Amino acid sequence: MEIKNALGIPMRLPVGFAKPETPADIWWFPVEPLVTLAKQKFIVATPLANSKYYRGTVKELFSDGDYGITIEGSIIDISPANYGEKDERNINKLKDFLDYNRSLLIYCDLTTDFGISHIAIQQIPRLQMQGNRLDYIVQGLSDQIFELLN
């Protein structure tokens, strides 16, 4: 699917959010953001004691952690009619997703390539207004939907 910005230019790595109860209602970030993934593995490291032949630790019980997802960019109206104006509609849409207290669906080729379909927004370290441009950083964790057995 080709997603275009307000100028009609195809985005190379569009990013979109949707709420699980309305998955077809995707909001695409209006200006293409930068997406970064980070991965942490959990490893139990047991020190070797009283060994004159070995040093260090024995690594065991490897398990995968979540992916950290960082999305950073700006929101400003880039449509020809309002170029450079404050984009109230998209700022309010971003705020709506940031205030949502459940995991969101994330649409992005990078996250899809790593098997990530949901993001749990953990923190928003930057919401900064400069003139009519809102700069943001959104940080979250990859999430999965689990069916718990009773």
UniProtKB/TrEMBL annotation:
Domain DUF6046, chain residue ranges per copy: 28-149
- Which InterPro entries is this protein grouped with? DUF6046
Superkingdom: Bacteria
> What name is this protein filed under?
DUF6046 domain-containing protein
Q: Which organism is it from?
A: Pseudarcicella hirudinis
